[in-house]
Every structure is written in structure tokens, then in C-alpha cells.
Hints:
The protein is of the alpha/beta class and 328 residues long.
Amino acid sequence: xxxxxxxxxxxxxxxxxxxxxxxxxxxxxxxxxxxxxxxxxxxxxxxxxxxxxxxxxxxxxxxxxxxxxxxxxxxxxxxxxxxxxxxxxxxxxxxxxxxxxxxxxxxxxxxxxxxxxxxxxxxxxxxxxxxxxxxxxxxxxxxxxxxxxxxxxxxxxxxxxxxxxxxxxxxxxxxxxxxxxxxxxxxxxxxxxxxxxxxxxxxxxxxxxxxxxxxxxxxxxxxxxxxxxxxxxxxxxxxxxxxxxxxxxxxxxxxxxxxxxxxxxxxxxxxxxxxxxxxxxxxxxxxxxxxxxxxxxxxxxxxxxxxxxxxxxxxxxxxxxxxxxxxx
Length: 328
């Protein structure tokens, strides 16, 4: 049985009886809780989720489209870095993806169907990189290379990227075994692969393509913006992109059964990406992905920021949410 109670600031908390759902939800509020974003269109509900596999608890912001009808049936997009999606007033850098404005406007004009967005917060800087770094490509590297990468920093005198071992397989298990069943039990989202997508940027793009490759029967597509193929902050003497390409060669789903979107800019951190995205594009072409199922775009002058991703967000949303063929 699930008991639902109202909480301050419009937050929704759920306490789940042991054994009913894998996720466990807190039922308290304290002064340290982050502010709930204000949305320009639609409405927002907040959950706090404790993964069943020992990963840190995290917030989940669920955006319900304008005119939300609990008796309808909606596609759903699971987005990484959920704290950056809706309200620049609540983000660390004063930027946002503008999901509510962009998707709300597209729904209003009929360009895409009404859609629910599940914004999954990362669990903080100490956890983001090891949870988003695709685990199987990492573990394909020699043990000594793995050890050196785990000690890699963010730059001169910067903190380590990794807080212990890569654990993205556990993160995907949380999404598939805990979060998706919860969302599908509480909201009227369609429970078929063709209406369930994943999206993210930078390392969030990496975990999104990894999600489709590892769970092709669960996710119908991924949008990967400014995909961080280097995995670290340099290209020189970096074995990671090659490991990623080898993984994709073995694990990409069959062509034309999923929607796969990639893009990049060419400024700031995105300046590292051209050679790697070119190799991925060549692989997609060799696998005969058609234009309805694969898109790769370049945005000259675009940097690595939420402002840049907001400016082009309509493109991947349109690509994922366009009508699907029966084979998908």
C-alpha cells in the first residue's frame, strides 16, 4: 500500500510499504530541502527516492503537461541532471534547460503530443561521474588503466572525478527496477518501449545512450546532447573514446528500432568532441540507421552549457516524439 500526504511547498512525499515497490520514499521535510522549481507551463510534483540498491537518495521532479488528465495516456522522457531542467532561479549557475517553456509551447501548437518529463536529479558532484560513466566500456580497459582513470582530476588542482568505483550499472538498475515502476504506478504514462525515452547532456548523454544499449527493451530512444565521449577532460593519451566505440560496435541495438539523437557545439568543452562524434556517426552510417531513427547535428559557436542546450532543445524533443512506425 502507498500512502500519499501533502507537504510544504507543493512537494509530494510517498511512504512505500516494504516489498511493495523497490524504491523507498521519505516522508519528512527539513530546512535543507532544495526549493521546488517554478514552472512557466504545466505543473510540477516532487518525489524523494531512495534507490533499493544502496545508491544515494535523490530528488525526482515530475513535470505534468498543460491540461494534464489522469485518465489520459502519455509518453514519458526520463531526463538526467533533473535539478537543471526547469528554473534558473534554483540552479547552481543560474541556467536551465527550459523544458517547461519549450515542451509546453510545442504541445500547445500540436507539434508534439502531451508528454510527461521525469527529471532525475544527480546525487551531487561526488556521485555524478561514477553513476553516469558507462560501466562496461570502463571495465573493458586494462586494470592499471582503470586505476589511473579513477585518480583523474578535473584539471590542475581540481578534485577527483570519481568517488570510488564506476557504478552506472547500479544507476540504470535504479531507473529500470525502482523508478520506472513507481512512475508507471502513479502517473498515466504509456508502458510500452516506443513511448519511453531517456535524455541528457555531457555525461548525462553518455548514460542515456548506455541506457538504450543495456536496456533496448525498456527505452525506445535517447537524446544525447554534447555527449562527453572523452569521459575525462582531455583527448591526448585517452583510451576512453576507443573503449566507447568498441562497446557501441558490439552493443548498439538493431537499426531503425530506436530513436538515437546526438549533437555537439564547438566551443568550451564541446571543442573536444568533433573527432569522437565523427567516429560515432560513421558507425551509425555503417549500421544503416535511417534519418527517422538517427540524427547527429553540429551547432557552430555553441558552448557546453544549459543555455546552449535550451536553445536547441526543440530539435531532440521533436525527433523523439514524432509518430512512430509499427516496427518500433
